[in-house]
Amino acid sequence: MSRRVGLANLLGGLVAAGVVAALVVAPAPGYRWQLPRGFPVPKVPADNPMSVAKVELGRHLFYDPRLSKNGSFSCSTCHDQGRAFTEAKATSVGVTGEIHPRNAMGLTNIAYAPVLTWANPTMRALEPQALVPMFGETPVEMGLAGMEAIMLDRLRKERRYQLLFRAAFPGPADPVSLANVTKAIATFERTLISGESPYDRARLGDRTAMSPAARAGEELFFSENLECFHCHGGFNFTGSVDYVGKGLPEIEFHNTGLYNIDGKGGYPAPNTGVHEITLRGEDMGRFKAPTLRNVAVTGPFMHDGSIATLEEVVDHYAAGGRTIAGGPHAGVGRTSPLKSPFIGGFELEPGEKEALVAFLESLTDRKFLTDPRHANPWTQPFDSVRWGARRVRGAAGGR
Ligand code: HEC
Ligand code: HEC
Q1: With a 6 A CB cut-off, is 229 part of the ligand 2 pocket?
Q2: pTM of the full predicted structure?
Q3: Which of 17, 33, 173, 330 has the most CB within a 10 Å radius?
């Protein structure tokens, strides 16, 4: 309960402060999206247009442990590039050891997400979302509550930031502010775009990019028998999507019959899905369907990391809902009155489960997972002249 109220207060404050801006197309002179072929242009808030300097600043902040209470955690602690910005733990652990009830979500193509986190219909933009891990207390993630001024002072002392904040936010006032921190982080996150998987190469005509098994799995995925595409459809393999030219964003939450602890479709608290926010009975167990791009490297799976492998995810859907035989969460998901009509269950021929998994694996974009532009900048060389430092006479390249 305190979690819900805490979040609502935090967000209420943000709305009052005008931080939650409507997403519209922000003209950004000089900024060029590098989008995979066929991908639409992401929407960007009018008061936070894209810029190369802001992306670079945001990347530094995303990887900076100064953004945590004791200097031990950065966003990347739980959002690791090699795992498509997720982590190996079933549920996250914060800087003070507090256990988060949920599994860290991936940030693949997060620029196209009209709603953020597993089941919060009010969380609509990346700028305010970044405040939750930094300052949230239920649970504590980075533990910065009450430490805003201390954190900003830490940043002001860093030489790279003295250049980067100025380059990203030119103007007379001190650019090192919390609003600019979240704007820069959100700008970096919007560049985390992935669309060069074997599946994409096959779509562009390279018949050898996908194995025959993966192609058979693709047909199963898009079949009316398995129904996967109804909730994981479109170029980003999720029903919740937005982009320039879309009009209204699509936002969907579904109950997949993962739990049924009371015979009435109940999920174990505090992970009751959208219900946690709305307290409406029909929202019990409804979660966002994550993008399936790069899903093979994001395990364990589901909102609470309660499924270890993709094979077991397929078993859950094939059964039309998961059965838990004993313990506090025992129940038969198949008989849940709240599960989506698309979770009907299906039978697979020998080899078909492997094919479906091979298809999901063909959505892994190795280039994205190793792209140096998305990697930790603190271990990369820094071009201070590029970001505004004056060339020192006599220094290399200065004559
Ligand atoms: C302690 C681990 C942890 C840290 C540190 C952390 N996150 Fe997360 N992140 C999570 C978890 C867990 C979720 C799912 C939260 C939920 O559903 O309530 C999440 C969700 C998100 C989402 C939503 C993704 C989606 O698909 O909807 C974004 C965006 C995000 N985090 C960005 C950040 C940023 C930016 C930072 C640093 C300022 C950060 N996170 C730090 C664990 C973490
Ligand atoms: C009714 C909508 C719906 C259908 C149909 C559906 N899914 Fe999902 N999928 C979801 C939702 C919602 C989640 C998250 C559920 C949760 O965490 O409780 C999810 C989660 C997943 C995950 C785990 C993702 C992660 O990052 O943890 C995989 C993999 C997956 N689905 C694959 C499939 C496949 C394969 C099919 C077809 C057999 C399918 N889905 C059918 C809605 C759906």
Answers
A1: no
A2: 0.94
A3: 33
**What are the start-end ranges of the H helices in the chain?**
2-16, 52-62, 75-78, 126-135, 148-156, 159-168, 178-190, 198-203, 212-221, 228-231, 275-278, 310-318, 352-361, 366-370
Is residue 104 within 6 Å of ligand 1 at its C-beta?
A: yes
The answer, yes or no, to whether any atom of ligand 1 lies below 6 A from the CB of 253, is no
What are the structural domains, with CATH classification, of the chain?
2-194+369-379 (1.10.760.10)
Closest ligand 2 atom to 339 CA? 1
Q: Which of 200, 180, 380 is nearest to 294 (CA)?
A: 200
Expressed in angstroms and rounded, the spacing between residue 133 Cα and the centre of ligand 1 is 6
| Pair of tokens at residue 259 | 């739990």
Q: What are phi and psi of 50, to 5 degrees?
A: -70, 145
Task: Find residue 23's DSSP bridge partners.
Answer: 45
Question: In the structure encoding, which two tokens stand for residue 176, read together?
Answer: 């090192």
pLDDT score, position 26? 58
Q: Where in the chain does DSSP place strands (E)? A: 23-24, 44-45, 323-324, 331-332
79 CB within 6 A, ligand 1: yes
Separation of alpha carbons 30 and 40, rounded Å: 19
Q: How far is the CA of 4 from the centre of ligand 1 (A)?
A: 16
Q: Is the CB of 154 under 6 A from ligand 2?
A: no
Please give the angle made by the CA atoms of 19, 23 and 25, to the nearest 5 degrees.
125
85 Rama class: left (phi>0) / alpha (psi -120 to 50) / beta: left
The pLDDT, as a whole number, for residue 171 is 87
Smallest Cα–Cα separation from 144: which of 65, 66, 69?
Answer: 69
User: Residue 67 C-alpha to ligand 2 middle, in angstroms?
Assistant: 33
Distance CA 374, CA 130 (A): 17
